[in-house]
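Help!! Second protein's tokens look totally different from the first
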Amino acid sequence: QQQQQQPRQLASYPQQQQHEPLLPYPAVPKPLPYTAPVDKVQYGYDVMVYINQAIKLPGMDWWNGLADPYIIITTIPPNAEQITYKTKTVWKSLNPIFDEFFELTNLPIGSTLMVEVWDKDMVTDDDIIGRSCWCFVPKELLPSTAAGGGMLGTDSSWGRVPVQVKLGHPRKSNKPMGVVELEVSFRPSQRCGPPAMMGPVRFRQHLSPAAGVLTGHWGNADTMCFSTYKLFLMHTSSIFKDVRCPWNKQYDKAVTIFKNPLMLSTVRTQHSSLYATHMGVTRFGVLTSPEDFFSLFKFGQRGGQRRYFTYTLLEESLRCSETGAAFFSDMMSKHAMHAGGEEEVLYAGKTGVSSIAATLPPAAIVPGRYCI
């Protein structure tokens, strides 16, 4: 009782007496608004590029007068490495809506965004539809409107400006090739560093025609067992550095595949058919939180049982399918198939989702208590 009645002693901190209150944590610096003078901006800009749509594209396919467009935006900072973002393909459209975005950080003034629209071809090489460039100069974007709502919430430190990029053909300069509509949001960066892509992490879940027809699950968007997953990742090279895993030369099945051009071609054909987006049922999306990631894989559960996944991790993506699925178990090598026949990857193996609340019903799942 005497020990309980004694006053609690505060921990000792430098330049602080025990009778004084604890020092507060350092305050997070308030971001400069997008209207900040250029001479006050030390670390470049955070930039979010929203790709809305392309309009009035020319027809590229002679048999239907349409096109299968996708957009590649290459950000070219002065004296730094280029950064590339590629959208999904919108099939059979001259006015495709993309509704995608990407984020950059520490982008210096004078950086160029080169916008290219390409037509996807399944047999021959893809054809370029049009190209144009836009220069990021913040002072020329003012006055713009404060960004609010949507992904930026109520944060008014971001400036927002609509951008229309008129396309021209590289070899046909006098012929208009359509317009790409963008929306650029920007504000000064808070931390120093090189220009870099900050996201988002996109995913693509695909139910292939081959798997669907052979297993009778065609059109079932909730199917896990016969789906392939591809997650487009960021900064893997900076995390894994020089880590590379070549194929196992002691494994008979791997030797059979990689030493036989015909077998290797078959594996690559399997990859193309199971990951192709022009046929079958494909679901696109963005992962904005860890919960989104685990939800994509339904927290590792199917039919009330834990499921595992066979994966390959490459520099730009994580690719996987459910381990033990009847259709995929017939593949010559699931790892080689997911890797598209690449002779080395960052990692490959099997994994699953583990939960300390695995026995709880879905309504009682607590976010943030899962690991893979």
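Here's the second one for comparison:
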Amino acid sequence: MLCSLIYGQLADRFGRKPCLIGGVFVSIIFGFAMAFSPNYIAFLAFRIVYAMGGFALYQSAFLISIELVGPKWRSFNGTLLCFYWVFGYVSCAGTAYLIRDWPTLQWVTVVPLILCFSYIYFIPESPRWLISKGRIDEAMVIIEKIAKSNKKSVPDNVAEELGHEQADEDTKANFWHLFRYPNLRKKTFVVISHWATVTLVYYGLSLNAITLGGNDYVNFAINGAVELPGCILGLLALQYIGRRWPLAVSLCLCGICILGILAVPADVGWARILLAMSGKMLVSCAFAIVYVYTGELFPTVARAIGFNTGNFFGRFAGLAAPFLLDLGDISELLPPIIMGSVSILGGLTVIFVPETHKQNLPETIQDAENLGKREMHLEKGTEMVKL
């Protein structure tokens, strides 16, 4: 959550790749530091910084992955990270089962990050971000390299077309630009609601796994494994259907599964577990869609800021998840009623945002403001009207 406040500004101002490499360095240094913490307070301090590095690493990788490709491959690239998340989730259970000494477990899980140093050499900066900052020559070097690897040629007039100057306001986009224009402001509030919904429900169902009984390691692995079909459904929906309705359906069905727990007698435990795991699969599908959808709703000049605005409020909802489960001490009906209702309401909010399937990414603030508008009434050519 702390990193959400900082990362968006840094990534949109200094680039995706510097934040990616910075995240690698921070994660490795403080990941090893955690294993040798002299006391619990030091461990918590190292853990906070370690999490911030991991956040920057993950989010930068996602932004680069969707900004390097066109509409055809954006769904695949955007959801690919979700599959790696599931792999790490499940393998963590097996690793923790084999290594019961926590300091050893800590450095064992950090060692693979050393391979990420290779990113410095073969992962380029986002050409879209470079273009948005007017660094056309640097962008053209990357574009030509990509075209050569794909055995394609770059048209002669591309550099000239990309060289059109952008408005100063676009190149200096910040957090407040998300709320300055009516259509973009509406999208921002809806994105915040989506992130809050999926994060609350996701962590609520994940933390509830400890109540399943049996072996904790097996429960943890199963809780991660059920996300795999959710990621597959998310990928297929993004690729062949779109964003709006798959997100709405997955969240609404998730809410129905959670509310369905209320109708199952307490002595029919297997049915309750089945509904909970179905809800976890569906909210994982929604999470995969939200990642891609958010990246497509915001412009390149403020994509990281918009993305992490939603993420920030989502983390607030995630913080509430443990306390939501504690409401079960008052009445076991409260957690499923709240999570189920929130999930359904979150799914209904998609009516306020446009479909972005097979559309080009918005590059400027104006592109994002115009996205989804049926009629444009602009007084001065392409100038936007501020409210």
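Reply: Different proteins will give different token patterns, so don't panic. The mean pLDDT is 87.
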